[in-house]
Amino acid sequence: MYEKTRGIVLHTIKYNERNSIVHLYTDTHGRMSFLLPQGATRGARLRNAMFMPLSIVEFEARISPGRDIATLKDCRCPEPLAALRADPVKGMVAMFVSELLSRSVQESEGNEPLFRFIATSVRLLDSMRLGVANFHICFLFHLGAFIGIQPDTATYRRGYWFDMENGVFTPSHPLHQHVLAPREAEVIMLLSRMTFANLHRFRFSRVQRNEILDIALAYYQLHNSTIGAMKSPEILRQVFD
After folding, report:
1. 112-116 contacts: CB < 8 A, separation 24 or more?
2. Predicted confidence (pLDDT) per residue in 63-82, tens digit
3. Cα 133–Cα 124–Cα 94 angle in degrees, nearest 5
4. Which residues, 6+ apart, have CB-to-CB distance to 81 below 8 Å?
5. CB neighbours (10 Å) of residue 29?
6. Which domains does the chain show, CATH number per domain?
7. Exposure on the CB side of residue 62, measured as CA atoms within 13 A
């Protein structure tokens, strides 16, 4: 039996000469994998374009318990997200977001708040004119709330250390090495004040932005072993001044 659902494209990999596998984060079943037929026809090319990273698609799927790869039909892309495809800078940010989600979001059960957050973030990235250079940093921080690793900013006091293992601020150095010194710990509080509405007001140099990105990724990697060494951050480090 087919059911209607929505999904956000994470990434696509080649399976064999005739098919690829597309990984989606869906609104009703969390992360899922689907068989995507390939070909040289115009219809196949249009279908492949529909499944670019971060595309928001609607489709019908035959979902069978115990099957790793599902089948889909009647796919459509109601939101073109033209700027993500035409603007190379936004495209690089989209590449980072899709790689981060591919590695950090593994659950195969529905999480409507997380789906809404990702979909809303993608739409904002597509439409925004100011602050694109800070989008990935803002997204990193706020995604943490949905996957259970958001720092406890209520424990912050000026001059405190940040305990990266436990996600809290402490008055003294914890008994391990996964820690941020007080000056670096202030970055966490700075990020907690950043939203998609005000991120254009935060001014960083390339060095500062890269340092913040390194801190945020180190925190994610500490709490999620599936993230590992990502490829896209190195591209972002070279883009923004």
Report:
1. 112/27, 113/146, 114/25, 114/146, 114/147, 115/6, 115/8, 115/25, 115/26, 115/27
2. 776 667 877 778 888 888 98
3. 55
4. 54, 55, 56, 122, 123, 126
5. 19
6. 1-80 (2.40.50.140), 82-241 (1.20.1440.120)
7. 6
Mean pLDDT over all residues of the chain?
89
Joined tokens for residue 107 = 């659950």
Amino acid at the residue 91: G
Q: Which residues pair with 69 in a beta bridge?
A: 33
Q: Which amino acid is at 220?
A: Y
- pLDDT, residue 65, reads 67
Q: Which amino acid is at 114?
A: L
Helix spans in 7-154 (H): 42-50, 82-86, 88-104, 112-127, 132-146
Asked if 163 and 188 touch (Cβ cutoff 8 Å), the reply is: no
Length of the chain equals 241
